[in-house]
Write a structure and sequence with these properties.
heterodimer, A: about 525 residues, alpha+beta, D-Maltodextrin-Binding Protein, domain 2, Dipeptide-binding Protein, domain 1, Dipeptide-binding Protein, domain 3, 3 domains, four-stranded mixed sheet, B: about 325 residues, mainly alpha, MetI-like fold, 2 domains, two-stranded antiparallel sheet, 14 helices, 2 strands, about 75% helix
């Protein structure tokens, strides 16, 4: 009897694996090869694919290949030119000048000029974009002295450092001639974007796929290498892992495959787990605290909570090592702003118990000091798991915790509008500068109903002043000092507990080349990505 | 089936629809968070209140409760399904796009379940108490207790990853431009695993019904009479036992087909088939009232149609029910 079908299959895959590894080693020096369709997994289909309006990772994952920003993040140089070739602010912080790349056209053939930048900034980024509203509230006008120069004018001094840090995510440029005069928010092009990018939007078959095709008139020399990118809708995480294994898809991003599957996938010959390429979009796990509860308004109790929770346990067990314990609201990966010189709190159950006693909450007859309702954010597997862990950890120091779960819409209404929580597990994103989406979690006096903001009842004049100072300090070094002060104040007051920093994982088959070669890779243009035939 | 009965059937559906419509509105109203909250959760917030306020205005969520109910009731009454908030497209388009896929998936799944159940149920009844009966009945119960997502993933691992015989998801080969027979075959290949998952998890129900009804028929007077007349066993089993035993099976088939439009969120998710189950789930989690109302309407129509169909089949299987009975009762 010959070998069974299964044995033959196994031995051929093993051989193929060896061949691929051998090819993989030799391929570092290889020239990129043109052609091929990259198939990647998508778990959701955004209802709006306009990245100038909706600056979110889910949208960028698809449309950053079609609509380009002025600059992109870079491992070596910090920022690298895309549509802008030079950029910089004035001494007084009132103007910011951008020189644009010559010879760029939109995929419909219309030349790209400073008019498009001015239109995008004034009509879209400032009034419509979710993040632009935060960064550009004082943008007064964008002047266009010539087709390749755009001058941003601000009504109050605005730190050039903030603008620069915001540009990669906030500055997607739309074609003015296709949007001007229309209701931008309802323009049908929001679902079929047109830009200057290496790919053009080709087709969206709802529930099945989105297809982008190579832009033959792209300005990048010889780029893009791929003929097309196909986003295959695969909602189930287990099915995504299987599809990677069979080669039905080449790549998943944003940890779309469960972390528990990673070691198994990484062990496969032709699949690699990549933990780089997300440095520009670091997430954190936080314990959000409602200061309206008398117990939680007491700083001693919040310090006790911090002592009772072990971030390293969350790193090791919940994130299986793919995370780091945090010291504060700026992640350690953000080298320009991060400081380790802040108050730290060891994992120390005895200290936690002592603080709770001192605060006047002794254990009752049943061993319980008081009870709290905890709402874990429902969107990540890990936010839910951290909820389970925090519940156990707090029970050890005599705080009873009731878990309350809701779907995403219900969760953000409960926490950020109705304040219907005692504790919540949050997952804020650090977007390259503390002023974009981080300080808003500490700023007092915000109206109820602003999602992912300080709805915690914490309002400290000193903290508010530090945050305001960061927005008006023009000198970059001075501004860094302000945010070091911010981190110290946050660690001292503990209005919320920042527990771990984490980024995502990409799982890619080895034939995909130039994976994770910039800090926002999954949300960058993929102009230099290629497929080994 | 007379036209009069058909009309009466349709009229009966109206109060049901009304009750469900009010229920859907109230439940969605009671859920914390609205469509704008769900959207903002998805895009990571908006920095201030203005975007949320603009969106609420645009979606009509800023109106009073009464005004919103009126809009909702009017759109239902006029069969104007309106615009889906979550998909930013007309509700009718979204539903029509998914309807054929759901019908094909659920139809083939339930049909497979019924065929397996009828065949194996009859076999188990004829071999009552013997090893075949035990094996078949136990297997059916074990499969029935197996979670659908687990069975689906297991089938994917065996048939798609290891053996590579069948595609692991989707409804047709991605981006394929096949037409005619090739396209039909392609879709059929994609349907094998999801339909098998549904069929295997559901056939226990039909098996139990069929087996029980066959055994009851075996004890009946007409079977004894048939045996006394010396009819061949084959004829007794098929005409005198299996045929009456099919009645409860058809009843159940009708009931299950009614829920068919609900789709199967689990199977649709595992096999990446964009069906109505996951659509309804999405409509709820996005608090998309117009879409949910549309799914509701479509579901009601289907349930009514299936019930009519079941009535017709009843009449064929058992001459005592159906038109005759209807006429006697009606006159």
């Amino acid at each position: 009897m010959g070998a069974s079908r299964r044995e033959i299959l196994l031995s051929t895959t093993a051989l193929a694996g060896v061949a691929l590894v051998a090819r993989g080693r030799g391929a570092w020096a290889q020239e990129p090869v043109k052609g091929g369709t990259l198939i990647v997994a998508a778990d959701t289909e955004p209802r709006n694919l306009n990245p100038a309006m909706v600056a979110s990772n889910g949208v960028f994952y698809v449309s950053s290949k079609v609509v380009e920003p002025l600059v992109e993040m870079d491992y070596e140089t910090g920022l690298r030119p895309v549509l802008a070739t030079e950029w910089g602010g004035s001494e007084d912080g009132l103007t910011y000048t951008v020189k644009l790349r010559e010879g760029v056209t939109f995929s419909d053939g219309t030349p790209f000029t400073s008019e498009d930048v001015a239109f995008s900034a004034m009509q879209v980024w400032k009034p419509l974009q979710n993040l632009g509203r935060v960064v550009f509230p004082n943008l007064e006008a964008v002047d266009t002295p010539d087709p390749l120069t755009a001058v941003f004018t601000f009504s109050v001094p605005t730190p050039p450092q903030l603008i620069e840090n915001a540009l990669p995510a906030l500055s997607s440029v739309l074609p003015k001639h296709l949007y001007d005069g229309s209701d931008i928010a309802e323009n049908p092009l929001n679902m079929a974007p047109v830009g200057t990018g290496p790919f053009v939007f080709a087709e969206h078959r709802p529930g099945e796929f989105i297809r982008l095709e190579r832009n033959p008139t792209y300005w990048g020399e010889g780029q893009p290498y791929l003929d097309a990118i196909l986003y295959r809708v695969l909602p189930d995480a287990g099915a995504k892992a299987a599809a990677l294994e069979t080669g039905d898809i080449h790549l998943t991003a944003f940890s779309a495959v469960p972390l528990a599957e990673m070691p198994r996938l990484d062990a496969l010959d032709d699949v690699t787990v990549v933990d780089k390429g997300y440095e520009g979009i670091t997430y954190q796990i936080t314990l959000e605290i409602n200061h309206r509860r008398a117990e939680l308004a007491n700083p001693l109790v919040r310090q006790a909570l911090r002592h009772a929770i072990d971030p390293q346990f969350i790193v090791d067990v919940v994130f299986m090592g793919y995370a780091t314990a945090a010291t504060g609201p700026v992640p350690s990966s953000a080298a320009d702003f991060y400081t380790a010189d802040v108050a730290t709190y060891d994992f120390d159950i005895a200290a936690a118990e002592a603080l709770l006693d001192e605060a006047g909450y002794p254990r009752g007859a049943d061993g319980t000091r008081f009870s709290l309702r905890l709402r874990p954010a429902p969107w990540f597997e890990q936010t839910r798991a951290v909820g389970d862990y925090v519940r156990q950890a707090l029970q050890k120091v005599g705080i009873a915790v009731e878990l309350v779960t809701a779907d995403p819409g219900g969760h953000i209404a409960a926490v950020y509008t109705d304040h219907d929580f005692d504790l919540a597990i949050g997952s804020p994103v650090y977007r390259n500068d503390p002023a974009i989406s981080t300080t808003i979690l500490f700023q007092g006096g915000l109206p109820a109903g602003v999602p992912f903001s300080n709805q915690f009842g914490y309002d400290d004049p000193e903290m508010n002043e530090i945050i305001a100072k960061g927005l008006r300090t023009i000198d970059s070094a001075e501004r860094v000092a302000v945010y070091e002060e911010f981190q110290r104040k946050a660690a001292e007051d503990l209005p919320i507990l920042v527990l771990v920093d984490f980024t995502f994982l990409t799982v890619a088959r080895d034939e995909v080349r130039n994976v994770a070669n910039n800090p926002r890779w999954a949300t960058s243009s993929w102009a230099d990505t290629w497929l080994q035939p | 089936m007379s036209w009069r009965r058909l009309g009466r059937r349709l009229l009966q559906a109206v109060p049901v629809l009304l009750l469900v419509a009010i229920g859907v509105f109230v439940l969605l109203e009671l859920a914390q968070g609205d469509a704008v909250d769900a959207y903002l959760a998805g895009i990571g917030g908006a920095g201030d209140l203005t975007l949320a306020a603009e969106l609420r205005q645009r979606y009509g969520l800023a109106d009073s409760l009464g005004a919103r109910f009126l809009t909702y009731a009017t759109s239902l009454a006029t069969l104007d399904l309106g615009w889906s908030i979550a998909f930013a497209r007309p509700v009718l388009d979204v539903i029509l796009e998914r309807l054929p896929k759901t019908l094909l998936l659920m139809g083939s799944g339930i049909l497979l379940a019924a065929l397996l159940g009828i065949g194996l149920g009859a076999l188990a009844a004829l071999r009552r108490g013997r090893p075949t009966d035990t094996v078949v009945t136990t297997a059916a119960l074990v499969l029935n207790a197996t979670p659908g997502f687990w069975l689906g993933l297991l089938l994917i691992i065996v048939f798609s990853v290891e053996l590579r015989w069948l595609p692991l998801g989707g409804f047709s080969t991605l981006d394929s431009r096949a037409t005619g027979l090739a396209a039909v075959l392609d879709t059929a290949r994609h349907l094998v695993l999801p339909a098998a998952t549904l069929g295997l998890t559901y056939f226990a129900l039909y098996l139990r019904l069929m087996r029980g009804a066959m055994l009851a028929a075996a004890e009946s007077g007409w079977v004894t009479a048939a045996k006394a007349r010396g009819l061949p066993t084959r004829r007794i089993v098929l005409r005198h036992m299996a045929r009456p035993a099919l009645l409860p099976v058809v009843t159940m088939l009708g009931l299950q087909s009614g829920t068919m439009l609900g789709g199967s969120v689990v199977v649709e998710t595992v096999f990446a088939i964009p069906g109505l189950g996951s659509l309804a789930f999405e409509a709820v989690s996005q608090r998309d009232l117009p879409l949910l109302a549309g799914i509701l309407l479509a579901g009601t129509v289907l349930v009514v149609l299936v019930n009519i169909l079941v009535d017709i089949v009843y009449g064929r299987l058992d001459p005592r029910v159906g038109d005759n009975l209807g006429r006697v009762a009606g006159d």
